[in-house]
Design brief:
Two copies of one chain form a homodimer. By secondary structure, chain A is of the alpha+beta class. The first copy, chain A, has two domains: 114 residues, Orthogonal Bundle (Arc Repressor Mutant, subunit A); 142 residues, Endonuclease Chain A (Endonuclease, Chain A, 2-Layer Sandwich). Chain A is built from nine helices and ten strands. In chain A, the strands form two sheets. Chain A has a seven-stranded mixed sheet, with helices on both faces. In chain A, β2 and β3 form a beta hairpin. In chain A, α6 packs across α7. Chain A is elongated. At the A-B interface, α1, α2, β2, β3 and α5 of A face α1, β2, β3, α5 and β4 of B. β2 of chain A pairs antiparallel with β4 of chain B. The structure holds a DNA duplex. Chains A, B: This is TrmB family transcriptional regulator. Chains A, B: It comes from Methanoculleus methanifontis.
Chain lengths: 263, 263
DNA sequence: TAAATGTTGTTGCTAATATAACAACAAGGT
DNA sequence: ACCTTGTTGTTATATTAGCAACAACATTTA
C-alpha cells in the first residue's frame, strides 16, 4: 500500500482557502493518487484517522469532489483536479456575488451622506486600489489634470486611465522620456534628465524614485504614488489644502527646472 | 453614533468563505457604512470589542479591504464592495491556480497505472461532473455511441457534448421528440409516445422519468443519468459487464417497441 | 501648573467554537 | 472465531472571539 507521503504545506493552505479542511485536503489528495479506494485504504493513504475518514468523505461527496461506488464496501474516487477545483470555485464565486450585492446595500447608504474626509490623508494599499482611485479622480476632473511620474509607471498603469478624463479638461504630463508617438490629447513635458545630470541642479531630487509619481486634479485632489515599499505598492490620497499645495508647488518647481535646463 | 445594527447571517457566511473571519466581516461592513472612522468608532459601529479592532483592522489593510489615514488617531475607510470583493477573489483565484497545478502532479501519477475500476459502479454527483464524464466517454468512442434519453436532457445538457464524438463512429439517439432540424450526423429514432399510450404496451415504463437517460459507448461503458434526486442530479457510471449488458438490453428493447408501435 | 479625566493603542489572559484524533463497539462477512 | 466496515461518543488541539488592565498621550479642570 502506498505511504501517506507528505503533502506540501503550501498546497494545504491553498485548498484551505478554497474551503477545505486539512483532512478534506489530505483525503482528496490521497484519492487523486489511487483509483477506487475503500474507506480503510483512504485512511492508509492519507494518514487521516480511520474513524474521521467517513464524515470527511461524506463532505467531499457533498462538495462534488469525489464519487462513490455502489459496492460493499463502498469505494471512492476523486474527481480530476481541474473539474474539482472548478466545482469549489463555483461555490465561492456564487458567495462572492451574493456578498457583493449585500455589501452594496450598506455601501449605498453612506454615499448619500457627504464625505467628511476633506482634511485627511489616506493611505491606499495595492495597485488595483490605487488605479481605481486614480480612475475616479481623472473621470471626475472638471478643470485640470496634472501628472508628474516616471515613465515606467505611466506606461504600465496610468496612461489607460487618463483616457477617462473628460475631453475639454487639459491634461499635463511631466515625465523623463516617452516611447511611441506623442499623443496630441495630452500636453507633454519631457525632462531631459541626461542633460540635467551635467548641470549643478539637484537632479537626484527631480525624479529620484523608480515607480513613483504625483497626480493633481482640479488643484484640489492629490495622489502620491509611493511605489512598492514592502511588496505591494501604496499611495497617499488627500483633498487637504496642505498636501494639495505641496504637490502644486512640487509640480511647478520641477517644470520650471525643466525649462531652465532646456534653455 | 450608529448602532451596531445586526448583519444578515448569510452575508457573514459568504464573507467567511471568501476568507474573512466573523470580526473581519463585521468591521468591514461597519466601515462601509461610514466615512473615515477611528478605531473606537469602528468598535462602536461594528460591535467588535475595542481591543480586537486593532489586529482586525491590520489584517483588513493587509487584505486590501480598508485604507488608513495618516492622522492621529488613525482613521480607516473601506474600499468599495466591488473592488474589495475583487481583491479577495484575486487571492483565492491565485490559490486555485496553484492548487490545480500541484494537484495535477499527484493526479498524473495515477494515470499511468491502469484503472482497476472495470467492475465497479460509480455514483457521480453534480451535473458538471456528469457532463465531464459524458464528454470523456463520447470523445474516446471507437465503435458506437448509443443514447436513450428524454428530450429535455438531450437539449439542455447532452447534444453539445455529442459533437466531440469522433466522426466515423455512428451515433444512435432514441428520444420521444425532436425540436428543430434533424441533424444528419446522428441516427434518430423518435418514439411516438402519444400513439403508444393507446396500445396495451407498458408505455409507462418506456421513458417514465423526467430528466433521465442512459448512455452506452462501444458496448463497454455505460452511464445512467438518474435526474435530480435531492437537489443536484446524480448518475451511475460503470464498465462492468453486468450493467453494460442491462443497458444494452434496455436500449434494444425500447427500440424494438418503438418499431412495433410504428408498424 | 498640577491633578483629574479621557482616549488611543498594546499586551496578555480566558472563553467559545471548530477541527482533529482516539477509543470502543455493533453489524456483517469469511 | 476472526477480521473489516461503518458508527458513535469522548478527549485533545488550534483558531477565533472576548475581556481586563495598562502605558502613552492629549484635554480638561482646579
Amino acid at each position: 500500500m502506498k505511504a501517506p507521503r507528505d503533502v506540501p504545506n503550501a498546497l494545504l493552505e491553498s485548498l484551505k482557502s478554497l474551503g477545505l479542511t486539512k483532512y478534506e485536503a489530505l483525503v482528496y489528495i490521497g484519492l487523486l493518487r489511487t483509483a477506487g479506494a475503500t474507506a480503510t485504504e483512504v485512511h492508509e493513504i492519507s494518514g487521516v484517522p480511520r474513524a474521521s475518514v467517513y464524515p470527511v468523505l461524506d463532505r467531499l461527496v457533498q462538495k462534488e469532489l469525489v464519487s462513490v461506488s455502489h459496492t460493499t464496501p463502498k469505494r471512492f474516487d476523486a474527481v480530476p483536479p481541474d473539474q474539482g477545483v472548478e466545482n469549489l470555485m463555483r461555490r465561492i464565486e456564487s458567495d462572492a456575488r451574493s456578498a457583493r450585492e449585500a455589501l452594496d446595500v450598506f455601501y449605498r447608504e453612506k454615499e448619500l451622506e457627504g464625505r467628511g474626509d476633506r482634511e485627511l490623508v489616506w493611505t491606499i494599499y495595492g495597485e488595483e486600489n490605487i488605479r481605481t482611485r486614480l480612475a475616479g479622480m481623472f473621470g471626475s476632473a472638471e478643470r485640470s489634470v496634472e501628472v508628474l511620474a516616471t515613465w515606467d509607471i505611466l506606461k504600465g498603469s496610468v496612461l489607460p486611465l487618463l483616457e477617462s478624463a473628460p475631453d475639454p479638461v487639459p491634461v499635463d504630463i511631466v515625465t523623463e522620456r516617452w516611447e511611441g508617438e506623442q499623443p496630441s490629447r495630452f500636453r507633454l513635458h519631457i525632462l531631459p534628465l541626461a542633460g540635467l545630470r551635467e548641470t549643478r541642479l539637484p537632479t537626484e531630487n527631480l525624479l529620484p524614485y523608480e515607480q513613483s509619481g504625483v497626480f493633481l486634479v482640479d488643484n484640489s485632489r492629490a495622489l502620491l504614488w509611493m511605489g512598492a515599499v514592502d511588496g505591494q505598492p501604496s499611495a497617499l490620497y488627500s483633498e487637504s489644502e496642505g498636501l494639495v499645495l505641496f504637490v502644486r508647488r512640487h509640480i511647478t518647481t520641477v517644470t520650471e527646472w525643466a525649462k531652465a535646463a532646456v534653455q
